[in-house]
Design a protein that fits this description.
It comes from Levilactobacillus lanxiensis. A hairpin with a 2-residue loop joins strand 2 (122-126) and strand 3 (129-137). Strands 11-12-13-10-9-14-15 form a 7-stranded parallel beta sheet, with helices on both faces. The protein has 16 helices and 20 strands. By secondary structure, it is α/β, with parallel strands linked by helices. The longest helix has 24 residues, at 3-26. Helix 3 packs antiparallel against helix 6, helix 4 (83-94) packs across helix 5 (99-112) and helix 6 (150-163) packs parallel to helix 7 (177-195). The chain has helices spanning 3-26, 46-60, 65-79, 83-94, 99-112, 150-163, 177-195, 209-217, 230-237, 261-273, 290-302, 311-321, 337-343, 364-367, 383-394, 408-418, and strands at residues 42-43, 122-126, 129-137, 140-144, 167-171, 201-204, 223-227, 242-246, 252-255, 285-289, 305-307, 354-358, 374-380, 400-404, 422-425, 435-436, 439-440, 449-450, 456-457, 464-471. The relative contact order is 0.14. Helices cover 42% and strands 18% of the residues. The chain starts with a helix and ends in an 11-residue tail after the last strand.
Length: 482
Amino acid sequence: MQTDELETKIREILHQELAKQASTDAEPSPQLAQPEGLGNGIFQTVDAAIAAAKQTQVAYADKPLAFRKKVIKAIQDGFGPHLKEIAQAIWDETGMGTVEAKKTKLKDALYNTPGVEMLDPEVQTGDGGMTMYEYTPFGVIGVVGPSTNPGETVINNSIMMLSGGNTLFFGAHPGAKNITRWMIEHLNKYVEKATGMKNMVVSLDVPSIESVQEMMKHPDIAMLAVTGGPAVVHQALISGKKAVGAGAGNPPAIVDETANLDLAAHDVVTSCAFDNNILCTAEKEVVVEASVKDDLIQKMQTAGAFLITDADQIATLTKMTIQENGTPSRTYIGKDATVILDAAKIPYTGKPKVITFEAKKDHPLVTTEMLMPILPVVCCPDFKSALQTAVEVEGGHHHTASIHSENLPHINQAAHRMNTSIFVANGPTFAATGVGDNGYYTGAAAFTIATPTGEGTTTTKTFTRRRRFTSPEGFSLRNWEV
């Protein structure tokens, strides 16, 4: 074959191959078929939901951190304009707390939850080479949410866990199933529109206790995070999987004789009243030194507390709000103080935010986590007795405690002896969760406070594996002898 003929033949072959390649490139790349569902992360079976979340997570884990940041921004931009409507929807479904407080908590969860920025690797170098620690995903995390903070927990947990490269199966509380589903559906819409990824957070069309139990045992669930009652936390802890569990609390507020009483009264009343006390971190009782007890109670009344002194009225309140099995009556959890007073037929003036009365340390309204704006006051002769009493009434949960004092040794002693996941000095306890009555405080939002399993206020790092990479000949700026 002559040179000209050979060149012509080669051109023909190249032309054919290029035409074939152009045709192939024009075709859409094949997509893995997602398990059938109802759309936007909602499925009819646990298996289908977890299969979809796992498939998404495998692809998501290969994405760079910049992609994760894009996911988080989509969530923030999507929910941001709708916080008031979401807060109203939570209140409409659960009947607990206040709309304004929920809006504040939602804002805190959306913009104050720690994210991808926490995952910078740690590096050590030396004569023995280089060691690096990276934070890597677990996989699909099984989450159980509460009825007290349903929308906030969806946002808070999703931002932390998705920042870590995980996806989520979310088990909704039956008492907040509608708003939880709405949040999950819209979260998936926002993320898919921004990134093209589906089923980042999945849930069931009809949630149930049985489906949560099935989820906890599922082989493709790599980790559990439970924000709920003791029973469901116990189920998570015996599942055989790594579990992050939020437990009970009964936070005492200690007030010693050196405290700024005006500030202490304002803080304990405002924080107890915030969202009608359904935050597990909220002050549940006050333990005060006798020398300042009367002044403190008077200032608490000025701050919005209603004082009951009649023994029969206190007995009526106790019987009405605590069931025979010793647990709080769900009828009054998260209800306004005025609703509770009206039900107990206790007359009052104005619009009190909190109900208070003096009580012994063994009174059931002192020792029970009520989740209502009821704030008993326990009087003690001195600080030593007050601290010991606070330890007793907290119940060994090691959840949250606070102190109001200008005595630094007292603050140190209380922090040491209480040994709680959250400890606040001279402030409202809601400050430690990031929320406040006028916005949010500096610090990370915290709606899953894992006291039983020891993580405390959870962050993005809580939901990642800490992987150690070692290179004996790794890079170092040290001088080396040749």
